[in-house]
Amino acid sequence: MKDASVEQVLVRLREELGAGTFDVVDFWDADRFAMGLHKKDNAGRLVHFSSWNQPPGTVAFELEKTPSGSNVGRTVRSGTATVAALVDVVRTFLCVSQAEAK
């Protein structure tokens, strides 16, 4: 079971970007504070975030790209962000269109 802080981030992302816009991927079963997101039509990109040891309303995140023909993703950006800023990061990185977000 994930920490409530992770669930709150997912709720906000679904509200802002649309419930079916991204898939939740949980490669970190044992980590209650981490979660990943990707889009089926853009599976070479992964956003993962963690609320561990972050102030309320803030997460650490990494953006990964997996080159075609590879199984290994490379971090292209990492940092911390408010949940509101993370919405924009996810929208841009996963290429979520305005039509999808409705």
What is the strand and helix layout of this fold?
Layout lengths: L3 H14 L5 E3 L8 E6 L2 E9 L7 E8 L8 E9 H11 L9
Antiparallel strand pairs: 1-2, 2-3, 3-4, 4-5
Compact overview of the structure:
With 102 residues, the protein is of the alpha+beta class. The chain has helices at residues 4-17, 83-93; strands at residues 23-25, 34-39, 42-50, 58-65, 74-82. It contains two helices and five strands; from the N terminus they run H-E-E-E-E-E-H.
Key attributes of the depicted protein:
globular; five-stranded antiparallel sheet; 102 residues; 2 helices; alpha+beta
Evaluate the radius of gyration: 13 Å
Let me know the average pLDDT: 92
Order of helices and strands: HEEEEEH
Distance between the termini: 29 Å
Q: Give the strand order of the largest sheet, numbering strands 1, 2, ... along the chain.
A: 1-2-3-4-5
Biggest sheet record = 5 strands, antiparallel
Identify the overall geometry.
Answer: globular
Which range best describes the helical content: under 10%, 10-25%, 25-40%, 40-55%, 55-70% or over 70%? 10-25%
Helix and strand content put the structural class at alpha+beta
In DSSP terms (H or I, runs of 4 or more residues), the helix count works out at 2
What would your notes on this structure say?
With 102 residues, the protein is of the alpha+beta class. It is built from two helices and five strands, in the order αβββββα. It has a five-stranded antiparallel β-sheet, covered by helices on one side.
